[in-house]
């Protein structure tokens, strides 16, 4: 596995120089952030991003994400133009030598939490999801503003999106996903880009909107939409692992052996209720996921792709982008690399 780190570009308070100082981190996960969703990413911008990262002696390993326009998820007639734009972005990324692209197919909202600064017993703060708090929230009243959400939606946009989704159930969303995949994967093949869909976070319907990339059965259904290995997965331990029905290490092994795992997000979550969880430190004993088993699975199916420590807590007084501070993610990277070294060496003797 290749350890990478997410970097939000020039606006990220964490510099590439700092990231370079984390032991074992070789690659960067980033994106172009100033292009409206649905527009083509110009080659020049991609290549400038790549050069900047390379001049810090790091590699641009993954693009996370090229977002999918809502009209594609809704199956609107305008989707064809947006899909063509998506394909052109992939061609430009291919020309720049990008090998892995992460994206998601979650209607309206990306990852969702009820609180971003929940104080844990040790004084650090973490992102949490409390099902009762979420049940009381109404996104149409503008009660929520989370970092994963596209803040460019006005209240009116949101209301009409919710209206449009009223007729989209899970099966319709599958249809629209299949339509998208069948157009995009042939281009990804031509460009030799591994597409890696990110699971829904959390992996269940929220605010009445359907979510489908949620479980082993649904991931299996997803990979069967297109037989190409370019139609693959981002295996995110925290997203899938927040549903107690998902055995994440087992899923990782299963899809890894099929050659469909192209990117890994590693973080731990502590399940504190049926549909409630707290993001915890990466260490196994701090959460509900056995991180040793996660890294062992990667070792055993000989995963050579990128992995990144996912959300960290805010520790040591750091103030930063929720989930994306420096310190706890750096500890995560070091811990995950430590697990890997131990597993690898104990297999050599
Ligand atoms: C959250 C991230 C997600 C992820 C997208 C991928 O921290 O894991 O926002 O980038 O869902 O498209």
From TrEMBL:
InterPro entries per UniProt: Man_deHydtase, Xyl_isomerase-like_sf
Single GO molecular function: mannonate dehydratase activity
Domain of life: Bacteria
Keyword Ubl conjugation: no
Keyword annotations from UniProtKB, A to Z: Iron, Lyase, Manganese
Pfam families: UxuA
Cofactor (UniProt): Fe(2+); Mn(2+)
SUPFAM superfamilies recorded: Xylose isomerase-like
Catalytic activity: D-mannonate = 2-dehydro-3-deoxy-D-gluconate + H2O
EC number: 4.2.1.8
Pathway as given in its UniProt record: Carbohydrate metabolism; pentose and glucuronate interconversion
Role played: Catalyzes the dehydration of D-mannonate.
Family: Belongs to the mannonate dehydratase family.
NCBIfam families, A to Z: PRK03906.1, uxuA
Protein name, UniProt field: Mannonate dehydratase
Organism name: Staphylococcus nepalensis
